[in-house]
Amino acid sequence: MGKQSRLLAFVLAILLGAVYLIVNHPPKLGLDLRGGAQLTLQAKINPEQGINEITPRIMETAKFVVEQRINGLGVSEATILLAGNDQLIIQLPGVNDPAQAERVLGTTAQLDFRKQKKGTESELRARLQIQQAAAIQREVLKDSNDQKAIADNEAAYKKSVEDLKGIFERTGLTGNMLKDAVAAPIGQGQNSWQVALTFDDKGGELFAQITGEVGGTGRALGIFLDDKLVSSPSVGPEFQGKGITGGRAVITGNFTLDTANELALQLRAGALPVPVEIVENRTVGATLGADSVLSSIYAGLAGLFLVLVFMVLYYRILGVVADIALITYAVITFAVFSILGVVLTLPGIAGFILSIGMAVDANVLIFERTKEELKAGRTLYKSVEAGFYRAWSSILDSNITTLIACGTLFWLGSGFVKGFAVTLGVGVLTSMFTAVTLSRSLMLVMISNPSFRKPEYFGIKAFGKITTITTEAIAPETSSDKKNDNTTGAVL
User: Is residue 164 a contact partner of residue 227, using CB atoms and an 8 Å limit?
Assistant: First the structure.
């Protein structure tokens, strides 16, 4: 039993870690449980601006703009979802003023190009380092409970943003004059990337004038999105005076594909002001959210309690094993939700409760097979092993089909449907782990104790002709196995 004891100790360690994680980092609650605002934005075509069709790229840019706006609102745990081909659903948990959110999200991002003031070359480097340090500290403090440190860091970050703005002056070149911005490879190198810019005629003339003024001076060209510096490229001395002509330019640096795409997306956000219309502004009150949480907790506990009672009444000692595994499953699953950053919604909780039934299903298959083996006259140990061995293929098949359905829902669905798919999928995977590891080890440890070997504990009248408990490995049943099992000696 040494191997089983070590496995139980391993599962216990996971369980304790899961409890610690849930206590310190509980799963996030969605809009329907916490209360807040939900807005639906409809993208509109604008022939005057050259937008005759709403493309996925435009919606991706619009989503990025909204994310930046929400960050400005200071809303945490917001969810932004693409709906259909031309809609965005924005969920803002905890927001009590949906009118403010509507005003902010209904506007478009402002992109403009500014030139650095003379005599601020060294100051720019220092200010950028201060802002970078504040941004790093912001990430470190994100999950901290030290509110004073968070407030001090936020104030330092905002000051660094304002200080950087003072180093640059406006030029009149805005995002309305930028036609496109894309990530492009440099030469044949697969890891070297740049951002290619394309301006309209007026923008090209302004860009040439500005780059001619800062070229070769050591001063930078500041690219600002909503008054926030997103990039500060320098202009080489070869462009001094004449500037970069032709309405095209590239921003080079230590870009990877991801960072180049991110900057291009930021630039396009200002360059493509897609008209949006707020077609729905729905508010979920905090009281309704609290009621939903309470009702969900009651439903989950009631379902879990009924399953636990049924398993004990029907399967006796096997049911006790299943109940222990089921409680362990529930705790580990919630911890996985926290690790994955799952935002719990009512459909998500429904998926979790449904996965409880899936977790019991595996144990039912194992226990029924075990009882059949006991009634057929096998030894107690061999019956338990056979129950797991021969039920495994059915468990695997049923869970794989469920996981395929979860994957399809997650891939094709959106919003709450994805939440349901994630929670159900996590539950199914965790139930497989607990069923084939914890349940098996617990049963083998228990039957090694003579006190737990009474037939009535397993829901049968007698074990049949059973020899002493052996430790031999289980192989597929053969005719010789049946003969040997039916010619054994005394009843245990």
Answer: no
